[in-house]
Amino acid sequence: MAEGLPRRVFAGWRGLGLFWVLVLLLLGGGGLWLDNLGPPEPREATVAEAAPSPAPAPIPAPAQAEPPPVPAPVPVAETPAPPAATPEASPPPPSAAQAEAPAPAAPDQPAPVAEAPAQTPDAPAPPPLDVPVAAPEFPAARPIPAPDTALLEQGRFGALPRVGADGRTSIRAYAGQFDRQDSRPRIGIIVADIGISNAQTDDAIRRLPPAVTFAISPYAPRAAQVAERLRAKGAETLIGLPLEPAGYPLNDPGNRALLTGRSAPENMANLEWVLSRFPGYVGAIGVVGGMRGERFAAMEQSYLALQESLRNRGLLFVDARPGVAGPARAWGRSVDVILDEPATRTEIERRLGELETIAKARGSALGLAHAATPVVVDRLVAWAAGLERRAVVLAPVSVLIRRPPETAETRTQ
After folding, report:
1. What is the mean pLDDT of the chain?
2. Tens digits of per-residue pLDDT, 141-164?
3. What confidence score (pLDDT) does residue 80 get?
4. Nearest one of 267, 278, 282 to 219, comparing CA atoms
5. Which of 51, 188, 282, 345 has the lowest CB atom count within 10 Å?
6. Beta bridge partner(s), residue 237
7. Does residue 64 surpass a pLDDT of 50?
8. pLDDT by residue (tens digit) across 343-381?
């Protein structure tokens, strides 16, 4: 038994030594095998792996190598005095105005313009305006006489104009004041659609000179009151005639219009309705709402019948189509220039200049504005204020009319 124990111990140690010898042989053989395989094949690095350089240069680290200087603490002697300081050492609290005032600029930095308005030069004066600040005072005119019953007759819709028993007509009875001995070129201005807009009507009556002629719309809700105000101003009035325009029925002159598709009795009834809207006007003009009756005027017989009806009632007639021949069967004339197409300041001024040129070449000219819009009134006021120095004169439309060509009908009357 005693001899068997050392043998077993020796056999155990020998087995353990053999085990470690095998382990060492395996480790050494694995190292030789890995060495024979060589380094791994290079592969393309990904974006994340390629970011650092294979041999990066040392990046300076200022925060570690040279830390930024830390500002030294403000000495106690330079800090503001504590609240317990004496009153002499503490400055008085700033007022509200001082607190809101901007801090003064540093000596080497100019102060902004907004912070030093006293250093900026005065702004240049604005250029003079074309339109006077105050509306010019135009000479007053004598009032137009009140409607004369001797020049009226009763119609189916109200009082209608007629020639008096003594031959007097509305053209003479309700004409505006004008010195017919004045030999300067004469310019007439008609402003239409008066009475539709209260604000525009009031502005035009108040500001425009009395020599301007006002065409009152037949659809004005208070046509008689507007006519009365214009008579008191001394301004001539016309009644607007709703005649079928170009582009009808898209352009609609209203339910009382004279149309080519209506019979003569229907058109005559509508004409009587229009003429009875108010009394005391010198004549009629074929314009309503910017429409000038081109299609009705193309129907010659109906157009001539309209003119004859107006002449027989002692009324003049203005053809609102620019450049056409004057009325063939009535006292009147045609318009020379439309002033507000388009209704811009520059265009209105240009056409007023054109009107002056025509007047100086022919002796007279007639312009039409479709409505008393603010820009129209402003330009007319400014233009009329300088007529004296331009050697032309503003005249009512009754001064500019011409007699109709001699016909059998006119010679017998």
Report:
1. 81
2. 999 999 999 999 999 999 999 999
3. 46
4. 278
5. 51
6. 214
7. no
8. 999 999 999 999 999 999 999 999 999 999 999 999 999
Rounded to an integer, what distance in angstroms lies between the CA atom of residue 344 and that of residue 286? 23
The label of the residue with tokens 């190598």 reads: 65
Nearest to 336 by CA among 317, 358, 353: 358
The lowest-confidence range among 118-132, 152-166, 230-244, 359-373 is 118-132
Q: ∠ CA 276-166-213 to the nearest 5 degrees?
A: 45
Distance, CA of 368 to CA of 355 (rounded, Å): 10
> Is the CB of residue 175 less than 8 Å from the CB of residue 207?
no
CA 368 vs CA 37, 284, 290, 303: distances in Å: 109, 13, 10, 21
Quick one: average pLDDT of 307-323? 97
What would the two tokens of residue 99 be? 């607190």
3-state secondary structure labels for all residues of 119-170: HCCCCCCCCCCCCCCCCCCCCCCCCCCCCCHHHEEECCCCEEECCCCCCCCH
Q: Average pLDDT for residues 302-330, to the nearest whole number?
A: 97
